[in-house]
Automatic annotation (TrEMBL):
The Lantibiotic biosynthesis protein dehydration domain, residue ranges: 105-230
Family annotation (InterPro entries): Lant_dehyd
Organism lineage string: Bacteria, Pseudomonadati, Pseudomonadota, Alphaproteobacteria, Geminicoccales
Species assigned in the record: Tistrella mobilis
Record protein name field: Lantibiotic biosynthesis protein dehydration domain-containing protein
Pfam families to which the protein is assigned, alphabetical: DUF4135
Top-level taxonomic group: Bacteria
């Protein structure tokens, strides 16, 4: 689970919004609960991306000043009290957030729209899974069951819809795309057609081509999930922007600039 700014506020808001996903005909309750869990995480992240700057401005006026050295760190220095932060979040949860939304109606409307779009997208996925369950047998085996859904794996389009990962009870996973997959199906068929006409020597000179199974359903599609291989990370050294800012604010500092490793 990705850490969010003001996690104690946006996680509960995400869960509350996701719980509005209604039961659907033909959709098992276990699938709906898996969608609610995944949607709660997704909406919490969307809410944080939209509202965290405003929440930070509100908190900035209430928190005690931090030492200049804190700007050099990604986390608060050891021993720093979180009492002000915790009290601030508790106040928002206890009713302060409703007051914030009342003072910022455009923000409130946008968050409501994001939540409604998220629930609609989740409902579309569940209805598609129920309708396509028999067609998915080549990818999943008979009668697949959903255990987890991860939303928001692409840029949002069409009122917040995007790629989702659907994990199944047998350990397999599917990619759900809210658009037809005819281009992918056609391209993979072309690769297969070319490979059939290659000699063994030609195949040896080319990198292996992996074509995941694709099911195009017109308005949406399913694809066997492809795990991305790990990419080695090269460590580089450069002055940290936060370090520069910290040194500029610390007028008494005479130590030479140090380089902080970043990734």
């Amino acid at each position: 689970m990705t850490a969010l700014p003001f996690d104690g506020l946006f996680r509960p808001l995400g869960r509350a919004a996701a719980m509005g996903l209604d039961a659907l005909p033909g959709v098992a309750e276990g699938w709906r609960m898996a969608a609610i869990r995944g949607l709660a995480d997704h909406l919490a992240g969307r809410f944080a991306a939209i509202a965290a700057p405003l929440v930070f401005q509100l908190f900035e006026t209430r928190r005690p000043p931090l030492p200049a050295a804190a700007l050099l760190l990604d986390r608060p220095p050891a021993g720093t009290s979180s009492a002000a932060h915790d009290a601030f979040i508790a106040g928002l949860i206890a009713g302060g957030w409703q007051a914030v939304c009342a003072r910022h109606p455009v923000l409130a409307s946008r968050l409501d729209r994001v939540a409604a779009d998220g629930r609609a997208a989740a409902a579309d996925l569940l209805r598609a899974f129920a309708a396509d369950r028999d067609r998915l047998a080549p990818l999943t085996g008979p009668a697949p069951d959903i255990t987890n859904i991860t939303f928001g794996l692409s840029d949002p389009h069409g009122h917040g819809r995007g790629v989702a990962r659907v994990d199944l009870a047998d350990g397999r996973a599917l990619a759900f795309k809210p658009r037809g997959l005819a281009p992918e199906a056609g391209f993979f068929a072309l690769l297969g057609w070319l490979e059939e006409r290659m000699s063994a020597g030609q195949r040896h000179r080319l990198p292996p081509q992996h074509c995941p199974a694709v099911i195009d359903c017109g308005s949406h599609g399913w694809m066997a999930w492809v795990e991305r291989p790990p990419v080695p990370i090269r460590r580089r050294w450069r002055p940290s922007t936060a370090a520069w800012a910290g040194l500029q604010r610390c007028s008494t500092c005479s130590a030479p600039m140090t380089c902080i490793p970043t990734i």
